[in-house]
């Protein structure tokens, strides 16, 4: 064995070790956040993400949390550090979609990590990177409890807007100022103490990441740590380039329609493993809340490219180095004027448009049939609380696999609240949660089934739902049949039934029920008539 071959193998082994070391940092952060958070949404549903970024603010590793969060964190950190100085002892927060945010309930907490010995002059300590946490706050204000109002037409209606600001500056906390921000504005938060508790948990999680990254640098050297951060991104770039070469040169194009008919269009023009991902032809700025942001679009593309790889790699921005994204102004790149009352609403863009955009990319790449393509967002509350959950459904089948039933897919990766916790903390009873048999599309490989979920409400609440695939069915592929549409019905205590549209809301009285049926996944491959019979 030559020295060069040995060196290459040693380098590969060392890189693999550092990938696990970096990933362990994000895992530790996530566990610290989960353990110390107060809200059901973070502690039970695990609706949060933690990541490690390099000194340029590019995503290096993540724990396997929420894909729609993770791909956006790099752009968020880079945008924030360009407008706000970040020094030792600083912690910055934002939820503003114009600064790499996704939607207002997702609050991002960013901390820089500086190396050097404890006695070094702070101004001369090298920057090792950043740690960031993004958690969904089930209540951050807005015109309806749960902070995802289905009828919102402006950002101001969706809750408290936090432009990038210091929560801690040079080690000095600013909790009083944050409390004031959360308690003010046209639609203040209904759960300020819970917000502050979860923010404190995110700060603690970041601190765990800071200590872990500094320790790693002390053990192996700062230059070595930075080298392997870049080496991981380079490895990811190489593997994506190889996968894109496997697709061949040419144009891959697909269109998906939102349930209201708004088109999402993606074109991939590839040549020799690189190219352009263009979203020209997608809808203009949406009048409702289905506007996404470039940060969310980056999350979608990063996730889809990761699906092309058959080797385990954490999501990182090396996966996007081989392509250029072109996102014209419109539903996927809306303008954000300073006045939030004039800025577009985005809360559904993060959770629903992101899922439908994955539908389009997977269709263009021919990877699988369509999954449920929605997060089935259910929100209810009153002046005292806001509850939020996303509900699982069916996955699309592929050329050599059946679709999974009753699971989250693609841009979401949360848990469901345990019935005991749900019924103890909130005025509701869970009467049914079961697989929706037969809702997956038929095919040589059938799509996965959705679920049925039914609530009984015990006190008056405002109910909101945000969903997709209530009009446009999840497509089948290679001759497979589409999955079943989702639906939601309010069953009044009087016996009357009220069907809700995919993005809708109503007032609930004690004794009323919500019946939710989530979509199935599309099937793959044509089923012969005799087989179907």
- Main sheet attributes: strand count, strand direction, barrel closure: 7 strands, antiparallel
Strand order of the largest sheet: 2-1-5-4-3-6-7
The helix fraction, in percent, is 25-40%
Uncertain stretches of 5 or more adjacent residues: 1-7
Apparent shape: globular
* Count of spatially separate domains: 2
Order of helices and strands: HHEEHEEEEEHHHEEEHEHEEHEEEEEEEH
Number of helical segments? 10
Number of strands: 20
What share of the residues does DSSP label as strand, in percent?
Answer: 15-25%
Based on helices, strands and strand pairing, what is the structural class? Answer: alpha+beta
Rounded to an integer, what's the Rg over CA atoms? 23 Å
> What is the average of the pLDDT values?
93
Distance between the termini: 62 Å
Describe this structure in words.
The protein is of the alpha+beta class and 533 residues long. The chain folds into two domains: 3-235, no CATH class; 368-533, no CATH class. Helices cover 31% and strands 23% of the residues. It has ten helices and 20 strands. The protein is globular and about 70 Å long. The model is unreliable at 1-7 (pLDDT under 50).
How are the secondary structure elements laid out?
Blueprint: H1 3-36, H2 40-43, E1 48-53, E2 59-62, H3 67-83, E3 91-94, E4 106-114, E5 127-136, E6 165-169, E7 172-173, H4 175-183, H5 192-220, H6 222-247, E8 250-257, E9 263-271, E10 274-278, H7 294-307, E11 323-326, H8 347-365, E12 377-382, E13 385-389, H9 419-425, E14 428-436, E15 450-457, E16 461-466, E17 487-491, E18 497-500, E19 503-508, E20 513-517, H10 529-532
Parallel strand pairs: 10-11
Antiparallel strand pairs: 1-2, 1-5, 3-4, 3-6, 4-5, 6-7, 8-9, 9-10, 12-13, 12-16, 14-15, 15-20, 16-19, 17-18, 17-20
Helix pairs in contact: 1-5, 1-6, 3-7, 4-5, 5-6, 7-8
């Amino acid at each position: 064995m030559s020295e060069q071959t040995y060196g290459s193998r040693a380098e590969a082994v060392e890189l693999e070790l550092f990938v696990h070391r970096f990933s362990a940092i994000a895992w530790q952060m996530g566990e610290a956040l989960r353990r110390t958070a107060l809200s059901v949404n973070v502690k039970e549903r695990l609706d949060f993400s933690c990541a490690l970024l390099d000194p340029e603010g590019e995503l290096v590793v993540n724990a396997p949390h929420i894909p729609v969060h993770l791909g956006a964190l790099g752009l968020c950190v880079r945008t924030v550090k360009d407008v706000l100085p970040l020094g030792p002892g600083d912690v910055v927060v934002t939820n503003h979609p114009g600064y790499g945010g996704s939607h207002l309930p997702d609050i991002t907490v960013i901390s820089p990590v500086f190396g050097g010995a404890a006695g070094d002059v702070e101004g001369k300590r090298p920057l090792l990177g950043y740690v960031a946490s993004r958690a969904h706050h089930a209540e951050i204000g807005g015109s309806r409890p749960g902070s995802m109002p289905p009828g919102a037409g402006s950002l101001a209606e969706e809750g408290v807007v936090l432009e990038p600001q210091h929560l801690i500056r040079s080690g000095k906390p600013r909790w009083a100022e944050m409390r004031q921000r959360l308690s003010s504005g046209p639609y203040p938060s209904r759960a300020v103490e819970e917000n502050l508790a979860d923010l404190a948990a995110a700060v603690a999680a970041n601190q765990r990441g800071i200590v872990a990254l500094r320790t790693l640098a002390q053990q192996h050297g700062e230059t070595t740590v930075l080298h392997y951060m870049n080496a991981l991104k380079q490895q990811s770039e190489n593997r994506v380039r190889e996968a894109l070469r496997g697709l061949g040169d040419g144009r891959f194009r697909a269109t998906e329609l939102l349930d209201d008919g708004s088109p999402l269009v993606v074109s991939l023009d590839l040549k020799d493993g690189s190219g352009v991902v263009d979203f020209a032809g997608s809808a203009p700025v949406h009048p409702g809340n289905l506007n996404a942001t470039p940060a969310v679009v980056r999350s979608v593309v990063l996730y889809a490219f990761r699906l092309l790889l058959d080797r385990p790699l954490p999501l990182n921005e090396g996966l996007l180095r081989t392509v250029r994204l072109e996102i014209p102004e419109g539903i996927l790149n809306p303008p954000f004027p300073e006045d939030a009352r004039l800025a577009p609403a985005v809360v559904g863009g993060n959770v629903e448009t992101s899922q439908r955009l994955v539908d389009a990319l997977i269709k263009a790449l021919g990877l699988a049939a369509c999954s449920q393509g929605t997060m089935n967002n259910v929100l209810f509350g009153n002046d005292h609380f806001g509850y939020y959950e996303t509900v699982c459904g069916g996955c699309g089948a592929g050329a050599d696999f059946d679709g999974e039933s009753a699971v989250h897919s693609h841009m979401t990766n949360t848990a469901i609240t345990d019935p005991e916790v749900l019924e103890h903390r909130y005025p509701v009873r869970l009467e049914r949660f079961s697989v929706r048999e037969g809702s997956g599309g038929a095919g040589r490989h059938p799509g996965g089934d959705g679920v049925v979920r039914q609530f009984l409400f015990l006190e008056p609440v405002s109910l909101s739902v945000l969903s997709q695939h209530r009009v446009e069915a999840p497509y089948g592929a290679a001759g497979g049949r589409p999955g079943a549409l989702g639906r939601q019905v309010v069953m009044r205590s009087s016996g009357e039934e009220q069907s809700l549209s995919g993005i809708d809301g109503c007032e609930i009285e004690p004794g009323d029920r919500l019946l939710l049926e989530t979509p199935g996944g599309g099937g793959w491959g044509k089923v012969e008539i005799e087989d179907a019979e």
